[in-house]
UniProtKB/TrEMBL annotation, chains A, B:
Provenance organism: Thermococcus gorgonarius
Molecular function via GO: metallopeptidase activity
Classification via Gene3D superfamilies: PmbA/TldD superfamily (3.30.2290.10)
One of the GO BP terms on file: proteolysis
Residue stretches making up the Metalloprotease TldD/E N-terminal domain: 16-79
SUPFAM superfamilies: Putative modulator of DNA gyrase, PmbA/TldD
Location of the Metalloprotease TldD/E central domain: 107-208
Gene Ontology cellular component terms for the protein in this record: cytosol
Domain Metalloprotease TldD/E C-terminal: 218-440
Pfam families, sorted: PmbA_TldD_1st, PmbA_TldD_2nd, PmbA_TldD_3rd
Protein's recorded name: TldD/PmbA family protein
Length: 441, 441
């Protein structure tokens, strides 16, 4: 690869070669049966070269030197056809990395058999625990990735690692009631996926959902679960921390560093080195060292996150948040593992104190949120009515609001944290918010 | 592969091996510049085996005999763990195919250079024709696929072919007006993509959109363009023709064969052999011969489409509409090329006769339509106000209605047909509908 950098330097002022090898095994469930087992692997090389501030970017699904060479020539032709990007400064310089975590090589060789077994066990257990349950869907997967990022300024960083995930979707049918799809999941850096825990939690929620409670317009405490938080924050809140949005003036957080934007109970940071992280990356998608970036500390907004390009445009440093989009080949500002710090008490303790309120498992429609101002309008479903400290049944209702108002209403976070492997990877407790206006449906 | 069928027959009562080779080259535009060129290729083999009515399905991204053998064993293990599907009858028997179309081998070897050149030409031309235009996005792509479907009943069918597509998204900015993203596209089975036509049509629409006209609540004629039709029909109408939905009682067309469900001007059929078709398949995803299946003939509903499984459950024959989902490996009922028959007059003639009405280029929100009853609620955008036979400017409005009511309001179809390569492949004229209720926005 070093030779290819030398070859590319003849055509470009500077260039980057990023090589990704991946292997994914997975198995799926549909209606109580295993529907599919799959094994896929591949290599992708992405060339990013700059000549006279003109960018060329080529992608090829191979790491064979001949094909990479062709891609370099392809990128060089493209750069010639593009106009200069006057904002372009340079690719990153080498930095100092944290110590590499030890990869779990068991995940490199996993057979889909193991996932099929776990799913079969999950289906059997769910139907034993509740004969009225159908396992509508589910999936187990193990992914392994090896990546190497090199550039002509001397960056050369190799990383490898894997993660496993598992989820089930249950639907219960009792009398006239058909519950909504109830999800639960686990994700981790080894194969000890907690199938029994997933089933137990999902079956408990299905049990609650057999009793349907009408919702009404009211102002009540609500507890958002990890899936609901990840959905809402991924679309309404997290984009606002992007330095690109600061430059483009599309974040409501501009000029607010050091200001109180949330309740004291909320501390949020991005760090791939959290113990529950699925991908403890030492470098981001362009080889810049990762670090812990605090977004909100006890309610106070601490700062933006940056990739190399927008940091240099703004005159600051990359925070190691350049994430590679393997489809477009480009770098976008993104997160590694968004962590919401946990609290001291269990979810049960929080529920026990609520006279009337809701526990919200999922929020639908969060993707239509507006990150420019934090406005959102979502349907809480599945959601569960709490009365006199106990869950009474399932309800559906609407919440239309603003995520920054909501952040100030947070009153407690639970002790348990869950890792949410979908959308942005988030490691989050349940969060209780006070006096949330909801509209019955 | 025949040997592998023999190997699999020891483990299964019957089995199918489907091998897909693909090669995709593409290039993209972002904000007037070429952002990426990519070349990707791959092989996927899917095993579907049945033993005592128990299904096993395995996917492997290779066609090497050793790995396919492993996948067969994988599928056999899975079948043992599943329960019998009492509805299962059998995999398809060999059928009689139409003559294979001659593939255009030029598409097998295409370099992304050609697409980059076409995009650069498109960007240059668009900005020459209208200096206020930004080419916000766009893509050119060429895909090539070779597939072989074999099963233990003697099916062995090989097909190969390719298609090219091209689209641009323009945004115009004049004074205070920023137009919505205006799309136009071309798709065909050779490389003569009509870049000039795409630019000309898109620039014309941008020109219209510089003038913004308020919409109001009214009942007016509207003309839907190909993109709007493909969006609405893909979600609100086409699923209703699925035999699976007939069996599951989730189609409003049950019991209506021979009934008038649309205006006389509408004839709709599915046929991969239409001259504009992007994929003239002689066999579907499970090796059943394709044919022309008429859905609606001069307003009369002619019948459902079937794959092998649901046809046998219902006691009829597959219509060759088993489409393979390469992600899940399974077969779903789907379409090859949905053709809406064209008429005699040009779009200009139709527009010239409208005193007040709208030309609708795109419909947002069509994916939320309900195919169980045909209800939909969409935002028409981009859409253009027509007054006194001329397009006056851009408007945004809502249409909430029922697709079957709309079908009866169709009054004319244009002579020109466009092939829509996204969602379901559709070959469609513009369609005029009378007295459509719209809500101003």
């Amino acid at each position: 690869m070093e030779n290819l950098i030398r070859f590319g330097e003849k055509l470009f002022d500077e260039l980057e070669i990023a090589v990704y090898h991946s292997r994914d095994v997975s198995a799926s469930v549909e209606l109580n049966e295993i529907s599919m087992a799959s094994t896929r692997s591949g290599a992708v090389t992405i060339i990013r070269g700059i000549k006279d501030k003109r960018l060329g970017l080529a992608i090829v699904d191979s790491d064979e030197p001949e094909r990479v060479k062709e891609a370099i020539e392809q990128a060089a032709k493209m750069a010639k056809l593009n106009s200069p990007d006057e904002k372009w400064v340079s690719l990153p310089e080498p930095g100092k990395y944290r110590e590499k975590p030890k990869p779990n090589y068991e995940l490199k060789e996993t057979s889909p058999d193991i996932l099929v077994e776990k799913l079969v066990h999950g289906i059997k257990l769910a139907r034993e625990k509740d004969p009225n349950v159908v396992v509508a869907g589910g999936e187990g997967g193990v992914s392994w990735e090896e990546r190497r990022i090199l550039n002509s300024h001397g960056i050369d960083v190799f990383q490898e690692g894997g993660a496993a995930f598992f989820f089930l979707e249950l639907v219960g049918r009792k009398g006239d009631v058909v519950t909504p799809g109830i999800f639960d999941f686990d994700a981790r850096r080894d194969l000890n996926l907690d199938v029994d825990g997933v089933v137990e939690r999902a079956v408990q929620k299905v049990g609650w959902a057999y009793n349907v409670e009408k919702s009404r317009n009211e102002e009540v405490p609500i507890i958002l679960g990890p899936w609901a938080i990840a959905g809402l924050f991924s679309y309404a809140l997290l984009p606002a921390f992007s330095g690109e949005r600061l430059v483009k003036e599309t974040t409501p957080l501009a000029g607010k560093v050091g200001e109180k934007i949330a309740s004291d109970v909320l501390t949020i940071y991005d760090d791939p080195f959290h113990p529950l992280s699925l991908e403890p990356a030492i470098a981001d998608g362009e080889g810049v060292p990762t670090r812990k970036n605090v977004l909100i500390e006890e309610g106070t907004f601490k700062g933006f996150v940056w990739d190399n390009y927008w940091a240099k445009v703004y005159g600051t440093e990359s925070t190691g948040n350049g994430k590679r989009d393997l489809r477009s080949g480009g770098i976008n500002i993104g997160f590694h593992s968004v962590v919401i710090e946990n609290g001291k008490r269990n979810l049960e303790d929080l529920i026990a104190e609520i006279e009337r309120g809701y526990l919200v498992d999922g929020l639908q429609g969060a993707h239509s949120s507006n990150p420019d101002n934090g406005n959102f309008a979502v349907t809480a479903n599945p959601a569960f009515l709490i009365e006199d400290g106990e869950v009474k049944g399932a309800s559906v209702f609407l919440i239309a609001g603003n995520v920054y108002e909501l952040l100030k209403q947070a009153s407690e976070v639970t002790k348990e944290q869950t890792v949410m492997p979908f959308m942005n990877t988030m490691i989050t407790p349940h969060i209780k918010f006070e006096n949330v206006k909801i509209a019955g449906k």
